[in-house]
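[PROTEIN RECORD]
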Amino acid sequence: MTTDAHVPTARRTYLIGRSRPNAIVGRNRESGEIALIIAGAFLGMMGGLLVPVLSLRIVTLMGFPLLALAAVYVPYRGRTFFKWFEINRSFKRTLRQGTTYRSDAQEAGTMLDGREIEVGPPPGIGRISWLPAPFGPDEVAVLLHADRRTVTAAIEIEGPGVGLRDSEDQEALVDRFGTLLKHVANGDGFVTRLQMLARTLPADPDAHAKDVTQRGDEQSPAWLKDSYDQLQSMVSTSSEQHRAYLVACMAYNRELGSEAQAIAKAAKCSRDEGIATVMVRELGDICARLAEADIRVRQPLGRARLSSLIHGMYDPDHPIDHIQAMTERNAWPAELDAMEPQYLQAKTRESATRDPWCHATAWVKEWPMTPVGVNFLAPLLVHTPDVIRTVAVCMDLEPTELAIERMLTEKTNDDAEASRQAKMNRVVDPRDVAHHSRIDQRGDDLASGAAGINLVGWITVSSRSPEMLARDKRTIRAAAGKSYLKLEWCDREHHRAFVNTLPFATGLRK
């Protein structure tokens, strides 16, 4: 009698690779960079034609193109001069206009009917309107972002706990979540973007000891108490609480406006309330899909809970679950200062000390270039104790047909570039070979019905002082390296980058 040998199945791996901007002309360049190179070449040509002196003619003929190429290609403090130009210009304009923000919530007051006077948000957020909408037995806060023309709503979910499962359960969980993304992208709904937020905060390290003191048996033997005290002293005193949130985003377009108008006409309400009704319907569908993916929804975020979450991101001393007296105007900090280029300072009126909190935000410049497993973000999410951080991943979903067309265009361009390099007898770059294999793998996934996803990651680190912030930034950079990620800190624009880790589903250009 013979038995078939057990062949282990290969575990799922991920290979995202570096982002490659595509301009109208050129490869791996942005349109602005190509325009700068063309402008430099044009000025050099005009100088060679119009300048009468031979020495100056040579200088202008060679100087302008070289300056343009240096501004685009030569690294300068981690970026190029082309990248730094707009950042420095915006930062100087912000300094001229004033970088301090002070909330007027204390002096705003209320109307006679009990409604609160609205208070504007800090710089970088834009105009926001809050709409409460019933969501089952609770309520959910629907935010209308006038400047971005988007509609968002957030729910709190339980982390899937991928690290506590075996390989088969991990694969099944990932497949079910992929089904959720495919349904949202290819469905006839209005949600086009999802954001996952992972908030990590320090918990009370003495909570267990306090519980033992309060609920322990005083009649227990002395040797048992001593033994338990020794065991407690040997355990690490660092403790963390992890909270996960999902934000759904709808783009306000003509179809959404028509649907909201039809609902408002039928229910005899305003158009904004019709938009909120559409968001509640979409959010209910997403919650049903989350249940099928074995991800439990804890609660929707109403006005009080969402305000408490935003307030806690500016001031980590504020407990997230403390929702008493939390309204939309109390969500913002009392003071905010973006004067420092390396970090953002924020302070609330309930802060434990007079010193403000320091926040620094980085974006994921490069995703894994080598195959990684399901838990490749574990060093960043779990294995970094005593660092207050928020990890945000924003996913822009597109239907399978559009993703296939974009993949075919990219593959055609890469094949043409490879053919040109072969005709010139140049050595093949192994990174280009790996990129071609990634395109082929993405084509196979899209052919099987997967949805197209454009994603971007942001990480915000919060500390009490600039010295502690510099230490925590080094810790996060090391953890990101273990996750095969490359980070770039958003110096001189932290007040805008910080918004991308708030539950607003921002940070990704359409």
